[in-house]
Request: fold
Amino acid sequence: MSRVCELTGKGVQVGHKVSHSNHKTKRRFLPNLVNVTLTSDALGRSVRLRISANGLRSVEHRGGLDAFLLKAADCELSSTALDLKRDLQKKLAA
Reply:
């Protein structure tokens, strides 16, 4: 399982750990990923996703999972989220 948010695409970053003597060693900055169950109002079902805490705040800010998916770019979304977006667009078109 990769360490990438399924909705925002936020992943691992690389940087330096800097000691008091200014000695630099490589380290990894991991995203704060959480397993969440979000409900889609239009589809009428719940979906389990592994998203970052920041992504969860973005979903709530935009007004729910449906609004977030419709506004999100396809290149950021995972395959699961893309399938959800396609189903949502089909449901709203009908």
